Amino acid sequence: MIANYHTHTYRCRHAVGDERDYVKRAVRAGLRILGFSDHTPQDYFDSGEETLPIRMSPEELPGYAASIRSLAEEYRDRIEILLGVEAEYYPKYFPRLMDMLRANGVQYMILGQHFLGNEIGEPYSGRPTRDAAILGRYVSQCCEALDTGLFSCFAHPDLINFVGDPAIFEREARRLCRKAKETGTPLEINLLGIRERRHYPNERFWRVAAEEGCQVILGYDAHCPKELADRRSETKALKLAASCGLQPLETLEIRRIGTL
Question: What is the third-level CATH fold of 3-244?
Answer without folding.
Answer: TIM Barrel (3.20.20)
